[in-house]
Amino acid sequence: MRSALAGPFDVALAPGACLAITGPSGAGKSLFLRMVADLDDNEGEAWLDGAPRSGFAAPDWRRRVAYVGAEPGWWLETVGAHFATPPGALLARLGLPADSLGRTVSLCSTGERQRLALARTLVQRPAVLLLDEPTGALDAESITLAEAVLRDALQAGAAMILVTHNPAQAERLGTQHARIEQGRMV
Fold first, then answer.
1. Which pTM does this prediction carry?
2. Which of 8, 25, 46, 65 could form a disulfide with 53 if both were Cys (CB 3.0 to 4.6 A apart)?
3. What is the per-residue pLDDT across 36-51, written as a single tens digit (0 to 9) for each?
4. Of 86, 90, 96, which Cα lies nearest the Cα of 153?
5. In angstroms, rounded to a whole number, what is the distance separating the alpha carbons of residues 180 and 27?
6. What residue segments make up the domains of the chain, in order of their start?
7. Any idea which of 43-47, 117-121, 144-148 has the lowest mean pLDDT?
8. Helix 110-122 vs helix 140-155: crossing angle, to nearest 10
9. Which CATH number does the domain 18-73+126-185 belong to among 3.30.390.10, 1.10.240.10, 3.40.50.300, 3.30.70.260?
């Protein structure tokens, strides 16, 4: 794949694998995720189960290859309106109260919105998770809970590309490791 970053990039992930990407702010880590998610213009091709991204309608690709940004988007007033599938026990596993779905998004803390966005994505069971600093706004206990949920997704066969500034988190979750510096993956 090639974009404004200094590609091309050649990354292969098996089900259950996690590529943990670290690097300085502004190096292009988020751009890389957005490129794979087909959210930004780029050249090249991404493949899922032997099928090229260009063979998918954009919404279908994004359901199978799901991007969770560092600042997740919320476009409706209540949390529950964003869930096509009920999250069941996932909220409690992420340390969120049972009444979270009835809350107004604007009244949720940044950390709550981050965990809710993770739940919103995980209930869809995407084949690939593209996670941009998914625990950046969380306290240590919430990070532990979120990482346990992510490990379960990996064990269930999801592949993951995790961007993190936390080297310890990269070691805990990553089965493969890369660093992006000045737009280049090393």
1. 0.94
2. 46
3. 999 988 888 899 999 9
4. 90
5. 6
6. 18-73+126-185
7. 43-47
8. 10
9. 3.40.50.300
